[in-house]
Amino acid sequence: MYKNVKKKIERGVAFPTCVSVNNTLCHFSPLASNEVVLEEGDMVKICSDMGCHIDGFIAVVAHTHVLQGGPVTGSQADVIAAANTAAEVALRLLRPRRKNKDVTEAIQKVAAAYDCKIVEGVLSHQLKQFVIDGNKVVLSVLSPETRVDDAEFEENEVYTIDIVTSTGEGKVIMLAM
């Protein structure tokens, strides 16, 4: 695709591939020595950050799958539907003159409609060329522990939207590794 362009376009890997299973939130990149075996009913997030960069702008993608033969039902279906719907709503609100707090409020309402919670501490960031985390941030959950500056979206800005949902309390347990 980029072979016949007149200027050199840098491209490459932006993030490592991550495979997070069940309650593991993100950024788990198993080593070859890892002997975890996936089982029927496991929820697998591939991957929290799998991406490439084209001319210094990253493109990041994540997908969640439940390992089972039939349709996904119950709380697993709710948490996936909540994340998907919240992401769609957030994307529609990323318009000039809208504010980051508009997105935060909207994704909270979507999660509540599915009887789910948005996980605290997850931030969505503005992206800039050759810079992963820009200055403007969208907070996923309003909390006394996490504060971000109010921001207004402008034309030609680029954002990565991270929506992480939970059927529990939406709290992240810190683990020492």
TrEMBL record:
InterPro entries: Creatinase/aminopeptidase-like, PA2G4/ARX1, Pept_M24
SUPFAM superfamilies: Creatinase/aminopeptidase
Domain Peptidase M24 stretches: 5-163
Gene3D superfamilies: Creatinase/methionine aminopeptidase superfamily (3.90.230.10)
Signal peptide coordinates: none
One Pfam short name: Peptidase_M24
Superkingdom classification of source: Eukaryota
Family listed: Belongs to the peptidase M24 family.
Name listed for the protein in its UniProt record: Peptidase M24 domain-containing protein
Organism: Camellia sinensis
Taxonomic lineage of the native organism: Eukaryota, Viridiplantae, Streptophyta, Embryophyta, Tracheophyta
